[in-house]
Amino acid sequence: MSSPKPRVGERLEEMRFPVLGREGTVAVGQPKDRWTMMFVYRGKHCPRCKRFLNKLNAALDNWTDVLDVVVVSADSEEKARADQQEFGWKFELGYGMSEAQMRSLGLYVSEPLSDAETDKIFAEPGSFGIRPDGTLMLVDISNGPAARPDLEELLDGMKFNIENNRPVRGTA
Where does the Thioredoxin domain lie (predicted)? Predict the structure, then answer.
């Protein structure tokens, strides 16, 4: 089931997620000095997510030269930590995304197919480009694990948008 989609050009509802490796939370949707790219992934149970996030991690310096990167899922701290330790991810890794947060972002929400997959609902993938004022510039949402943005193309497009102060597109 999907949720109403957030509107580009409008302020994202402020959300906070606990993050591995430090006290406190990471926040999105509030004013800050830099652009942010937030990637939502399905969780530890998803091998396609790991491939995507490993590619992101390999290119992370290129991304963080331009904007902040936040990655988040509904996973527990233990599951997120296990993945971070196994793969050596260096990006900010948030966990514990609530169903209300998933729906606020317009993400598709899935029930696990079995206990072997996971033990609770989870969000399908999404990518969100957020301006320093907290407004959404870009929204890319998938209903399943196979459809993901090309990270090189996405970064190139975000650089262009940032450097040229491009207006939001696709508002209707």
Answer: 6-163
